[in-house]
Amino acid sequence: MKKLKNKKKLKKVIIIIGIVAFIAIIGYLVKGKGTSIEVEAYEVNEGTIEKYVEELGTVMVNQQATVYANLSGKVIEVLIDVGDEVKKGDILVRIDSEDQERDVRILEAQKIETKAKYNDVQKPVDGTQIKKLELVLSGLEKDIEASKINLNNQKELLDQGIISDQEYKDLQLNYEAEQREVEKARLDLELLRKPTSSNILKQIEAQLLQLDLQIEALKSNAGDFVFTAPFDGTIFMKNIDAGSYIQQGTAIIEMGYLGELYIESDILVEDIGDINVGSTVKIENSNLGIKDVKGIVTKIYPLAVSKISDLGVEQKRIKTEIKIEDSLQSLRPGYDLDVKIIVDRKEKVLLIPENAIFEIAGKDYVFVIEEGVANLREIEKGLESERQVEVISGLIALEKIILSPVEQLEEGIMVKERNFDK
C-alpha cells in the first residue's frame, strides 16, 4: 500500500516537471520571436562586372606648333588673340624687318635645310638593314632557346646538389640578359620597319610653305613681313603686342588643332601587364560633367620611367596613349581626367555587395535568410570591382543575404528583413 502511494507521488512529480519544461520551452520560443534582429536584406541577382586599372590622364593635342620669329624687327600688327580659330595661311603677325636682304638669305638657307630633312624622311626603308637585323634577331632567338633548355637541365643538377646555388644564379642572370637583348633587337626592327608618320611630313610641308610665304613677303612688301598659320587650329598663346620689338628665334605664337585630342596616362608597371593596345577605356570627370565617355588604348610606350608620387614614393610607370572615341566639345589640352582601363569583364554572373562578405578561418561567408532565420553559407569569390563581388559558387539567384552583419548576429537567430534599396 505504501509502495503504491510512492509510485503515484513520483508520477505526479514527473508530470509537474514535464509541464514546467513545456512552459519553459514555449516561453523561450515566444521570447526568441520577440527579440528577432532587424537586418538589411539584399536579393541576389545576375549582372555585369568589370575589372579595371584606374589612373589619372591628361588631355593632349595631336597637332601643335610654335611659330618662331625668323628675323628681328618691330611688330606692326597682331591680327589674332588667344582663343581665336585660324585657317592655314591666315596672317597672324605683321612686322617691319630691319635688314630685308639679310633675312631673305637666312630664310632661304633654312628652306634648303628643311628640304633636305623632308627628302631624308621620304627615303624608302633600307631593306638591307632590315634583313641584317632580322638575321641578328633570328640568331638571338635561337641562342635564348638553347639557354632556356640548358637552364632547365641545370635546374635538375641543382636539385641533385651537383651544382651550387651561385652557379645556377649566374646562369639565370645570363638568360635574363639574353632576353633583354632579344627584346631590344625586336624594338629596333619594329622602328626600322615603321614608316615615317604622316604628321611629321605635314609639319615639314607646313614649314616649307611658311618659309616660301615669308621669303615672298620680304621680297614684295618693301619691308612689311608676315607670319602665317601653318595649319587650321586655335591660338593657345601669344607673346607679342603691336609696337613691341622681337628678336630672331623668339617664340611668338603657340597654336594647336583641337579636333585631334587624345589622353596620356602613366600606368604602374605592375598593372601594365593586363593592358593591351585596343583595351577599352572609360573616361570620367565629375567636375566637368563627363561620365562613361568611351576611349581606347592606342599606344603603350616600350620604356618604363621613374616618377615620384604625390606621397613622395618613387614608382616605375609606363606611358600610354588613349584615343577619345566620343565627341567632347568642352575638352581642352591640359585637363586632367579619370581613366578606367578595362582589363576583364563578365556578363550574367551573380553579384553581391562586398559588405555582405566576411571571413572565417581564411574562408569567405555570407548570412543567407531562410524562412526568417539567418544561416551561414560559404561562398567562392570571383572578380571584385566597384564594391561589387562576383559569386562563383555558394549562392543562387533570388536568394536573400544580409548586408553589413552586426556582431550579435549568429547562425540560427531569427531576423526581420529591411530591404536594401539598390
Explain what the structure shows.
By secondary structure, this protein is of the alpha+beta class. The protein folds into four domains: 37-48 and 347-419, conserved putative lor/sdh protein from methanococcus maripaludis s2 fold (Beta Barrel), CATH 2.40.420; 52-61 and 259-346, Beta Barrel (Elongation Factor Tu (Ef-tu), domain 3); 66-107 and 198-256, OB fold (Dihydrolipoamide Acetyltransferase, E2P); 127-192, Helix Hairpins (Orthogonal Bundle). Helix content is 34%, strand content 39%. The chain contains six helices and 21 strands. The chain has helices spanning 2-34, 100-122, 127-159, 165-193, 198-220, 269-272; strands at 37-43, 45-61, 64-68, 73-78, 85-86, 91-97, 224-228, 233-238, 245-246, 251-256, 261-268, 280-285, 290-308, 314-324, 336-353, 358-360, 363-370, 373-385, 388-393, 400-403, 415-419. Strands 2-11-14-13-12-15 form a six-stranded antiparallel barrel. It has a four-stranded antiparallel beta sheet with strand order 3-10-8-5, with no helix packed on it. A four-stranded antiparallel beta sheet has the order 7-6-4-9. Helix 2 packs antiparallel against helix 5 and helix 3 packs antiparallel against helix 4 (165-193). The longest helix is centred in the N-terminal third of the chain and has 33 residues, at 2-34. The termini are far apart. Mean pLDDT is 83; it is low at 23-34.
